[in-house]
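quick one: adenosine monophosphate bound model?
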Amino acid sequence: MKILVIAEIHNGTLAEDQTSKTICAASELSTVDVLCASSNCDQAAKQLQSIEKVDTIKVIESELLSENLAESYSADLIELLKEYTHIFVPSSSFGKNLLPRIAGILDMMIVSDVSKIIETDTFERPIYAGNAIQRVQSKDKIKLVSIRTSNFNSAPSGGNAKIEKLSINIQNKISSWLENKVQDNDRPELTSAKVIVSGGRGVGSKENFAVIEKLADKLGAAVGASRAAVDSGFAPNDWQVGQTGKVVAPELYVAVGISGAIQHLAGMKDSKVIVAINKDEEAPIFQVADFGLVEDLFKAVPEIEKKL
Amino acid sequence: MKILVPVKRVLDYNVKAKVKADGSGVDLANVKMSMNPFDEIALEEAIRLKEKGVAEEIIAVSIGVQQNQETLRTALAMGADRAILIVASTDVNVDIEPLTVSNLLAAIVKKEDPKLILCGKQAIDNDFNATAQMLSAKLDWPQATFASEIDLDKDNCKVTREIDGGLQTIKINLPAVVSVDLRLNEPRYASLPNIMKAKRKPLEEMKPEDLAVDISPRLKILETKEPETRASGIIVENVDELVEKIKKNAGRN
Ligand SMILES: Cc1cc2nc3c(=O)[nH]c(=O)nc-3n(C[C@H](O)[C@H](O)[C@H](O)COP(=O)(O)OP(=O)(O)OC[C@H]3O[C@@H](n4cnc5c(N)ncnc54)[C@H](O)[C@@H]3O)c2cc1C
Ligand SMILES: Nc1ncnc2c1ncn2[C@@H]1O[C@H](COP(=O)(O)O)[C@@H](O)[C@H]1O
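yep, here:
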């Protein structure tokens, strides 16, 4: 068995939470090598070095890898991957974009969104928006796995991995990066936050979303949203929680003005404690909530914020 | 240009999946099936490109059982020009893996020579999110996944993608594979006259053998079970009570 974890790195910056949890998941099977492929890997490689159970960090540097276009995984890079029996990536937009492309080139299947590792070739993954859990066994020579990071812990530190710089020909003549529009805010990241406050269509407008954000800031929480809230322009797309948005599992998830459609539940029902505030006592969100309050959010939320 | 749109027949998104007690899968007999919602969006985008004069022909392709005909008739009624059905199973409970789907689609691409393939980003039944990426790899074409905006001219395509941090814009050469996200557009409903007209549009049927594609699965499904259910919670009386609960459970970040 030989395992490779592909680190998620954006333009030299390691996505630490996603990568660390993926390493932790993979290392249930054995020690791992980590692929550090980006434009400038020094900082990321150093961070990865101290993670427990990491054996070797394979560094490949190229400007063409900085924004993670999957087409930059050239034939030579794919050759390197063939040395492994398992390849793990986080099931983030980075991993979801990349892994199936690698699989297509290798003519192998993927096992995506793995929530539990059973054996070297057997995994569990949610299907149908989490309404069923499937246990699958991969018959492919290389197991290509993406990890649902909300189901795993971060890897402990204490390692002292080797760093190996590789010179591999990277090419991409068919796609190029133009720009990123990333909103900066001081809040914790949605997928790693311990507390999340999410707003839905019930919040009513972009201006009103300040009510949600104020409560979030009081709690030091990340802000999430339902699809309806994003579609209506109340919140940016990267706040969407759900089957087709982000999957989160914080200590505390506060759903405000969200009805609790199965597609939304798919992204948050593994949260430790769920609080729901909705004026409709019949709202399905109350079926998964540990604590529910039936009240108008514009009355309840500011009052809660004040009393915290 | 020709646009290919793969459309999958899935359990309707409003229907809650029921797991069969024997662990063999999700119950798909006598339940409402529909076109995968993402594929409606992909098809809508193709139709708009045709209306703008950028595309000439839209071909919808579905892989699965004989009943996928209905899904293709819906596609034709929305605005596809013709349809191809690849019957890869006689059992509605058999899901065709993305790798197989991409191999079959690659074979269709060889025959039809489209310049653009618009897929959904994810099938809402198996939730794989893989076909577009696998297909583009097979064809050695560029991929633009999770598209929320597509800006297309004769040779180039600019795509805005929904990524974890926000939005990313990339440029891809044509031919290309694009997988679409929810906010790309609002798909139209088929009008009654168009539903009638769709009955006369061409729908060709094939078998995987006709395309010389091996469809044996790579993943063995050992078991399908219910997720763990949450213990039922309580409704609190007032804000004060809720504040107590929040305080107790909100270890700060
Ligand atoms: C393919 C597909 C994928 C999808 N993926 C996702 C996904 O990833 N994430 C997601 O969230 N959804 C997703 N959806 C959409 C999902 O089906 C629902 O439409 C959506 O989650 C509804 O959002 P909501 O709860 O905010 O809105 P609604 O269902 O409209 O609920 C609004 C709630 O607010 C309450 N309310 C209104 N006013 C007040 C007030 N003043 N005070 C208190 N409560 C109030 C109402 O009682 C109601 O319960 C997807 C759908 C499809 C088809
Ligand atoms: N059996 C199928 N028939 C037609 N298109 C499919 C099929 N399976 C997947 N697709 C296409 O690939 C997309 C992604 O599916 P998946 O990779 O299974 O999540 C779907 O939205 C469809 O566009």
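The pocket of flavin-adenine dinucleotide (ligand 1) is lined by residues A 200-202, 226-229, 240-245, 257-259, 261, 263-264, 267, 278-280, 283, 296-298; B 13, 37, 124 (CB under 6 Å).
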